[in-house]
Each structure stands twice: as structure tokens, then as C-alpha cells.
Amino acid sequence: YYVGHDALLSDAVERLEKYSKLLISGIGGCGKSEFARQLLQHMTVSGRYERVAYVQYHDSLAESYRTAFPDLSSTSDSAVIEECRRILESNGNSHTLLMIDNMNQTISEDAALIQLCAYGCDVIITSRLVALDGFDVFAIPSLSPEDSQTLFRIHMPHAQTGYDHDLAQLC
């Protein structure tokens, strides 16, 4: 279920087309990953991308690539990163998108991240970080109280009317 940030999609599309590297940033639970999926769906329906690589970030960029691309021939971290870059850039003039979800390391913790800004494909990263060198930052705001209530009702369909009153007081 997607609630609350529909109006932001057109702005994110424009910024991705302009900068090609987009960091979707926000607090935990604000909908960064779902927003990125909605953006991806919009961009693929529009025909912009012929290929999309989805990478769930875990520990490091190299480790994340190993999980996302299980048939890699390389073994060292640097060789894995270069092999994946070649794969992502091998589509000629066709547009390729790399989406990295839940990136939680800084460049000082994972030096390979600095290379992403030079990739010859579009890159979307979701993260709680507020900045990443070479990326345009797209901040996702927290949901409004009304949207929070809607999301709660969607996920808790058995909730009684009394819960609505309690939830409204919390928000």
C-alpha cells in the first residue's frame, strides 16, 4: 500500500532525469523504499529504462553485489565492484537503472560508495543518510497524521472505532 507521497513523484522524476543520481533520504519508516518502488514503477511504465538492477544493501557495496548478482566470476571486493559496473554499463545507449535499497554506510565506512556517482547508468539509493557525494538528495518527509491513520487502518483492518480516537491523540 502506498500512502502520502504521490505529489512528490513528479518532482523526483524530474530530478532523476536531470541529475541521474538520486539519494532518497529520510527517517526510518517514512516510506523511502516504497517511494523508490513507486518511482521505479513510474519510470519503467514511461519506458525510460530497459534494464533495472535492484540491490538490497548489506554490510558493503561488494557484499551487496555478491548477493544481487550471484553469477559473478570475481572474488576480491574491488573486482566484484568493477565486474558489476561493467554489467550495468554494458547496455550501450539504452538506459539502465541501479536501485540500492537501505544503504546504511557512509563513504568513510565503505569507500566503494564514492564510485557510484561516476557510473554510466542512473542510480537511486534509499538511505537514512542526509547526503552522499555526487548525488542529488531527495528528502522524504514524515507522513501527515491523516496519512498515518490511513496507513494504520490499512494494516490493521480489524481495528475498532475506539482505536481511531486513541490514534488521533497519538498523532
Topology, please?
Elements (H helix, E strand, L loop, with lengths): L8 H11 L1 E5 L6 H14 L5 E6 L4 H8 L8 H13 L6 E6 L20 E6 L8 E4 L5 H11 L5 H10 L1
Parallel strand pairs: 1-4, 1-5, 2-3, 3-4
Helix pairs in contact: 3-4
Model description:
With 171 residues, the protein is an alpha/beta fold. It is 39% helix and 16% strand. It is built from six helices and five strands; from the N terminus they run αβαβααβββαα. The protein has a five-stranded parallel β-sheet. The protein is globular, with a radius of gyration of 18 Å. The mean pLDDT is 85.
How would you classify the quaternary structure?
single chain
Structural class: alpha/beta
- The percent of residues in helical segments reads 25-40%
The general outline is globular
Strand tally: 5
The number of helices is 6
Distance between the termini: 20 Å
Main sheet properties: 5 strands, parallel
Give the SSE order as H and E letters.
HEHEHHEEEHH
Strand order across the largest sheet: 2-3-4-1-5
- Please compute the radius of gyration using only Cα atoms: 18 Å
Percentage of β-strand residues: 15-25%
Q: What is the averaged pLDDT score?
A: 85
**Unreliable residue runs:** none
What characteristics describe this protein?
39% helix; alpha/beta; five-stranded parallel sheet; 171 residues; single chain
Could you give a quick summary of the protein structure above?
The chain has 171 residues and is α/β, with parallel strands linked by helices.
